[in-house]
Amino acid sequence: MLTKTLINMLFVYDFDGTLYRTGEMWKCWLGLLQARGYPKERAEEKGPLVFWEGFTPARHVREIDPECGDACVQDLDTSYRDYIQSQKERSLFPDVIDHLKKIPKEQQIIMTHGDPKFQQYKVNASGAGKYVRAIQVSRPDNRKVEQLAALAKSSKEEVIYIENNPRELSEVLEAKLSIALI
Questions:
Q1: Backbone conformation region of residue 48, classed left if phi is above 0, alpha if psi is from -120 to 50, else beta
Q2: Are 106 and 133 contacting, i.e. CB atoms less than 8 angstroms apart?
Q3: Chain-centre distance of CA 154, in angstroms?
């Protein structure tokens, strides 16, 4: 039985790119911007400037076009959020919900990086939020490795971190945390 082998384990999942089909959602966002006349190249160029601080549609639009008024920003933000909401579980990789359902909620955390409100919105809109005990959002001043160190120290369970970003995994290795990495 699957749950018997999982006793004393705490699964910590990265969200973007690990559970969430970030690339597909990014293509949609770029399409919305292009439909409003913004060049794809400019949007791609400005994306990394907002990712580290915490991507939101509004923050990205303001970076692309500082002259875009509040109504323009709100329109694009609402359009993208509506799209995210319409995608629900399709925004996740195909096996994610089935996997999350097999493990008790108390043994699962999503740890993501970005704007706290927007990341919470994405996780909950995808349907993944109801299967985990917490959604933790890292920021430049409270990085994932720091949050994982605190979890490893306070958790009675073995912490298993599932992440698609080699840089994030390297930081955990360099910190010599007693965490299993996948």
A1: alpha
A2: yes
A3: 23
